[in-house]
Amino acid sequence: MKRIFCLLLACLLLCGCGISVENQSHQLGYTTVPPTDPTTTAPTEDPIPANPYGPMDFGYEGDYLSCLSGDYMLGIDCSYWQGQGNWQKVKGAGMEFVMLRIGQRGSEQGILAEDKMVHQYYDGASAAGLKIGGYVFSQAITPEEAIEEAEFALEIIKDWQGDMPIVFDWEKLDDVPARTYGLDPAVLTDCAVAFCQTIEAAGYDASVYFNRYIGYYGFDLSKLTEYDFWLAVPGEFPDFYYATDIWQYSFTETVPGIKEPTDMNLMFIPVEPEEESVQ
Fold it and tell me: Are 66 and 73 in contact (CB under 8 A)?
């Protein structure tokens, strides 16, 4: 009997330890992602609107996912890895916008580099009549580095006639040695603000890219509400508690005119409130 009691006690302790380990962590790298269904996730006091969409709001029309309950634009994001592009074919396939990688910061040495295809992509996409935005793959660890990334991007796009935001795309890397490992979320949020403020000071719209993990445990989104949100959550609907402006719903889409598989996005177009008629 004593042995059975000890076994039961050990099981309880192990279960309790499992729960605490699963739910702990502030530094980027050690936690599970919580449920995101707005009906089961308690709202916070943060000034961030809740996600208005659910699974029934999306469906396929032809080859690509569409929003059935609101206006949207369909678009892709591309970098050097997508190879040569035939942008007239991309436009003909129903794409309305493209987000181009402007450049990136190395994950180990932190060196900035321009995307080798960005100017060629821009010229082709612009000639095809696509709306164009861009992003910097960031590995900034200080706000000063984030400002450096923004200024780096602004120099590259100085001749662009873009219609879409310039995006702070900071990503957590698990499979390579990364200088960003363990970065404090408060510092990461400061980096995003510094990047976006620099972009907007130059006359461009700014946006912040994140997946569910970084959205919940990395950024303090309540401090970023002045900027657009671009959510990366592959699936049938944007499974995230808060509202976002662009949803990256696939990482492996095939699009005519693009050599390699690419990311696919829906950009939600807000409905302007109707003015009340004067009686």
Answer: no
pTM as predicted:
0.83
Residues 171-206 pLDDT 10s? 999 877 899 999 999 999 999 999 999 999 999 999
Q: CA-to-CA distance for 173 and 109, rounded, in angstroms?
A: 14
Bridge partners (DSSP) of residue 53 are none
H-helix segments, 75-175:
87-92, 118-127, 143-156
75-110 residue pLDDT tens: 999 999 999 899 999 999 999 999 999 999 999 999
Contact 250, 49 (CB under 8 A): no
Q: What type of residue sits at position 119? A: H
Q: Do 82 and 258 form a contact (C-beta atoms < 8 A)?
A: yes
What is the C-alpha R_g of the chain? Answer: 21
Environment class of 89 (CB within 10 Å of its CB; exposed 0-12, middle 13-18, buried 19+): middle
Beta bridge partners of 229: 208
Pairing of strands 97-105, 112-114: antiparallel
